[in-house]
Amino acid sequence: MEFSELIRTGQAQAELLRGPEMPPLRGTLCVTGHHLLLSPGPQATPDLWLLLLRSVDSIEKRVAGDAGTITLRCKDLRVLQLDIEGVEATLDIARSIEALSSLESVITSFPFFYRPKGLRLGEAWHFHPPERYYKRIARETRAWRLSEANEDFSLCPSYPRAVIVPRAVDDDALARSARFRQGGRFPVLSYYHAPRGTVLLRSSQPLTGRQKLRCAEDEELLRAVLAEARPGARGFIVDTRSAQAAKQARMTGGGTEAKAAYPGWKRLHRPLERGRPLQESFVRLMEACGDPEQSMDRWLSRLDGCRWLSHVKEALSTACLAAQGMEWEGACILVHGAEGTDSTLLVTSLAQLILDPLSRTMAGFQELIEREWIQAGHPFQLRCAHSAFSHTRPKHEAPIFLLFLDCVWQLGRQFPLSLEFGEGMLLALFDHSYASPFGTFLCNSEKERCLCEVRTRTHSLWSGLNQPKEQRKLRNPLYVPNPLAIWPSVEPQSLRLWQGLFLRWTHPPEPSEVAWEKVWQIATDQKTEGSQPTDSASEPQP
Amino acid sequence: MASAPTSKYNSHSLENESIKRTSRDGVNRDIGEALPRLPGETRITDKEVIYICPFNGPIKGRVYITNYRLYLRSLETDSALILDVPLGVISRIEKMGGATSRGENSYGLDITCKDMRNLRFALKQEGHSRRDMFEILTRYAFPLAHSLPIFAFLNEEKFDVDGWMVYNPVEEYRRQGLPNHHWRITFINKCYELCDTYPALLVVPYRASDDDLRRVAAFRSRNRIPVLSWIHPENKTVIMRCSQPLVGMSGKRNKDDEKYLDVIRETNRQINKLTIYDARPNVNAVANKATGGGYESDDAYHNAELFFLDIHNIHVMRESLKKVKDIVYPNVEESHWLSSLESTHWLEHIKLVLTGAIQVADRVSSGKSSVVVHCSDGWDRTAQLTSLAMLMLDSYYRSIEGFEILVQKEWISFGHKFASRIGHGDKNHADADRSPIFLQFVDCVWQMSKQFPTAFEFNERFLIIILDHLYSCRFGTFLYNCESAREKQKVTERTVSLWSLINSNKDKFKNPFYTKEINRVLYPVASMRHLELWVNYYIRWNPRIKQQQPNPVEQRYMELLALRDEYIKRLEELQLANSPKLSDPSTSPSSPSQMMPHVQTHF
């Protein structure tokens, strides 16, 4: 293993500072292939402190006299300080961390070595989410079929092997439609809204280009969607770019669906921020949150200036728009931006949480993330390569998934009984999407994961999270199944900064856990006492 | 079950590209129910008007005016709107439009309320209907100017519980372990002769004679001498409250006052310095010398150290709240909301008040020294600081009755000028004496309850009902400026207490997650990052801010679990912080010994 070449020192004596509220740790510091270890001396507590090197976002070193200090800013937004004896040791450790934390190879990453007790490789329910989901909708409608046209990822490298498409459209037509869409992402079913018989689709932009090209199969595909829904059904194309940006995309071969070519479909533009501006918003937000000066009187305008909450608002508004189209207008919705792998997924997954009670359960939410983010080809490896502290210029990084989690948190805040999972689940997903011992968020697409054999050689995050010992941290003790749509208020006054995430390490987390524990006790006490009408409230559901 | 019901106001099509849903007008809509009337309430008139709802547009309705309330019921079939506004809430009534006014609904009345909203009614130009309504409303909303009684004196409501019995000063001091070797209860102010704005019963150092007290009174603004508010059960340090010393430009000294403060210090032998917190900004304290006031100088008070807490005066607070109203009613500032909020400085003031109270609480809880708190007159900022510090230190005040006692004691009995600050029944809406000092205190309590979701027995609704009846004039609780005036008017005999209403219906106001902890000191985080606007109070009239259409299951669940109700909205505040974030880093958090090791679950 070539790790040993990157490790420049065996060990050093160090003191670790973990933030204002935690006691410092002293001991022997040691770098391994995947971890930074601090082993307290025999006189102290036997606990070993461990940090996954992959989770280091940026590293700063300073030396003075015969000692040095390394500041590690982590992808989970923690800031750690190591005071190390010996200048040489400090520099060696810093260099080792730098080299090891930025390794790009997937198959040498820690998930391929992580073998936790109590978990078996390959025991996970989630291997075929589109298939599972298809089974669910096949009970409701015959209008859709499961196509394996992408079996070898030749139609679309970022789609899974199987996708759900209109029954009336055959695989050849899919292949042609794929050629007409950027990255081959032809329109596929994202969600079937059974109460109204309407559907949510997603795709990438059509490659109309300057010549305003058309594709008969692509048009036919969307026509079939409306025809299957109900005679005279209407459709809306929610384009997550501004009209201007969509028009400009024609110059580089992209574009939008021409009105005349897609009868029954109406285009709406809802520009959502993505890419670098979103990453910069995140960076500025963390600068404000971590500012030790606490320029308190300017905090609100600084928060405003970061625009993060505006992005939350826009994302939720657009998801509401898509959901309302299905629920109230009985319309079919197609969502896309340019590539269809970022803000598109944000909108489709949030719209499902608003409409679909099943996606708000613990299992349903995991399935949603697996199906709408991981299998749908959100490039996690590129987007989550760095978090808010990296000094390197962002290339493909963007906190789109974090924005999704924030929106879900806002939903949970406004509907505290309706989500089966709690804040702990969202925090865990954030941490694991940036750096994880599990393989779930590795790679950028299903195709890459197949090549790396991620599913057979790493453990799934879901099996990790679904262990009984984790449940109390992740579940919402007040959950009551709610069969209805949950429409959030999206006014700026209704949205809050997610303190539990963005200020997680700047104030002591312990009391919040204490409070959470108390709520659990109270909620479960009440249930066991049987005096609470929980059952009667949830029984007469349709 | 059907999907969320869509009414005229909340069905927005994609065609008009609106995603906002307005569902409710912030008022109850009960169809077909008669005009509610309290015993003692009489109907004066009714008129057909158009209510110009800022959220849903004009609605035709019938308005009923009684001697207590303005009640409007929609006459439109597709709207079940009801407005139910106690006349006490009204701050100002203006006529809009004249005889020559053109344009729809441009002629009528514009009513400014004290609770963050305005009401606008359009009337017909012919037939004097506006003049009638204006005159009747003016009469009954501002009874003082018309030699009419305030409604509280006409209210004949009966409750199972008598709220006037909630606060008994002797009992409360006995609960605190008083009198003891060092502190005595004095009746020197029995007839309000020593100080007409103080309560009859005071706790003072055992070693200070009544004559001493009289001499000290001469040197304190409005005779408000330092008296005990709270004593720490273990370390016996105390919180004292008073007004500013009458130092004046010449820097007058008063041996008796100096000696008196020393006597206070000596009640606790370990202490070599007494801490004086002057709530004002330094410059304001200096400026007060010009009008005969001032602060305790180092030269005169060797054994005391003085700190200024930089809290601004009633005028600054009034203007700040006015700015808050500007950005939330009727239209909520959309773009740059947070920057607009910042420019009101409201949260900054909240922060300063909380920070001051944390310092007081920390000083006392650490046993470092006893504390004297004052501002100018000692009835606004001083009341905020002592009551909030007591709330942090003493878990008893976090129960429903305990909180009522706290309000009754530190605010009502010690002469917070409710009548002047609120202007009950008074038409002078621009009175410079009006100020939302008590509202600011309740806001601070709400901020604490968000940071410590299990520490308070009461819920958000409890705080809101207190604020509603601060203005309503239905109860005698907040009437008049001080105890002597209340006694003269026989308020406890002639009116009903707000606590009667609340205590006979306690379940509605309970926080289901309350866990009683004895002796736990709460230090909220008074950083801007952890404070937020109390949206459920300040923006409650705007239907768009509400969670839209809480679904029936949730609704029913909440109804069934009346205990849980408001609390569940706050689950996100589980980030509870337990260390003081003071401007002074040297002050230390409470010692772990003050935390009770066991936690009782209360159900």
Automatic annotation (TrEMBL), chain A:
Domain Myotubularin phosphatase: 124-502
A GO molecular function held by the record: protein phosphatase binding
Coiled-coil stretches: none
Pfam families the record matches: Myotub-related
GO biological process: negative regulation of autophagy; phosphatidylinositol dephosphorylation
InterPro entries noted in UniProt: Myotubularin, Myotubularin-like_Pase_dom, PH-like_dom_sf, Prot-tyrosine_phosphatase-like
Gene Ontology CC terms, in alphabetical order: cytoplasm
Transmembrane segments: none
Family: Belongs to the protein-tyrosine phosphatase family. Non-receptor class myotubularin subfamily.
PANTHER family: MYOTUBULARIN PHOSPHATASE DOMAIN-CONTAINING PROTEIN (PTHR10807:SF52), MYOTUBULARIN-RELATED (PTHR10807)
Entry protein name: Myotubularin-related protein 9-like isoform X1
UniProtKB/TrEMBL annotation, chain B:
Compositionally biased tracts (Basic and acidic residues): 14-25
Domain named Tyrosine specific protein phosphatases: residues: 344-406
Protein topology in the membrane: Peripheral membrane protein
Pfam families: GRAM, Myotub-related
SMART domains (alphabetical): GRAM (SM00568), PTPc_motif (SM00404)
Boundaries of every Myotubularin phosphatase domain copy: 163-538
Keywords from the named record: Cell membrane, Cell projection, Cytoplasm, Endosome, Hydrolase, Lipid metabolism, Membrane, Protein phosphatase
GO process terms (BP): mitochondrion distribution; muscle cell cellular homeostasis; negative regulation of autophagosome assembly; phosphatidylinositol dephosphorylation
Subcellular location: Cell membrane; Cell projection, Filopodium; Cell projection, Ruffle; Cytoplasm, Myofibril, Sarcomere
Residues at the active site: C375 (phosphocysteine intermediate)
GO cellular component, one term: filopodium
Biased composition, class Low complexity, residue ranges: 579-593
Enzyme Commission number(s) of this protein: 3.1.3.95
GO molecular function annotations of the record: phosphatidylinositol-3,5-bisphosphate 3-phosphatase activity; phosphatidylinositol-3-phosphate phosphatase activity; phosphoprotein phosphatase activity
Claim: Cytoplasm is one of the keywords in the record: yes
InterPro entries xrefs: GRAM, Myotubularin, Myotubularin-like_Pase_dom, PH-like_dom_sf, Prot-tyrosine_phosphatase-like, Tyr_Pase_AS, Tyr_Pase_cat, Tyr_Pase_dom
Predominant subcellular localization, coarse grouping: membrane
Keyword Ligase: no
Catalytic activity: 1,2-dioctanoyl-sn-glycero-3-phospho-(1-D-myo-inositol-3-phosphate) + H2O = 1,2-dioctanoyl-sn-glycero-3-phospho-(1D-myo-inositol) + phosphate; 1,2-dihexadecanoyl-sn-glycero-3-phospho-(1D-myo-inositol-3,5-bisphosphate) + H2O = 1,2-dihexadecanoyl-sn-glycero-3-phospho-(1D-myo-inositol-5-phosphate) + phosphate; a 1,2-diacyl-sn-glycero-3-phospho-(1D-myo-inositol-3-phosphate) + H2O = a 1,2-diacyl-sn-glycero-3-phospho-(1D-myo-inositol) + phosphate; 1,2-dioctanoyl-sn-glycero-3-phospho-(1D-myo-inositol-3,5-bisphosphate) + H2O = 1,2-dioctanoyl-sn-glycero-3-phospho-(1D-myo-inositol-5-phosphate) + phosphate
Top-level enzyme category: hydrolase
SUPFAM superfamilies: (Phosphotyrosine protein) phosphatases II, PH domain-like
Function text: Lipid phosphatase which dephosphorylates phosphatidylinositol 3-monophosphate (PI3P) and phosphatidylinositol 3,5-bisphosphate (PI(3,5)P2). Has also been shown to dephosphorylate phosphotyrosine- and phosphoserine-containing peptides. Negatively regulates EGFR degradation through regulation of EGFR trafficking from the late endosome to the lysosome. Plays a role in vacuolar formation and morphology. Regulates desmin intermediate filament assembly and architecture. Plays a role in mitochondrial morphology and positioning. Required for skeletal muscle maintenance but not for myogenesis.
Family of the protein in this entry: Belongs to the protein-tyrosine phosphatase family. Non-receptor class myotubularin subfamily.
SUBUNIT field: Heterodimer with MTMR12. Interacts with KMT2A/MLL1 (via SET domain). Interacts with DES in skeletal muscle but not in cardiac muscle. Interacts with SPEG.
Record protein name field: Myotubularin
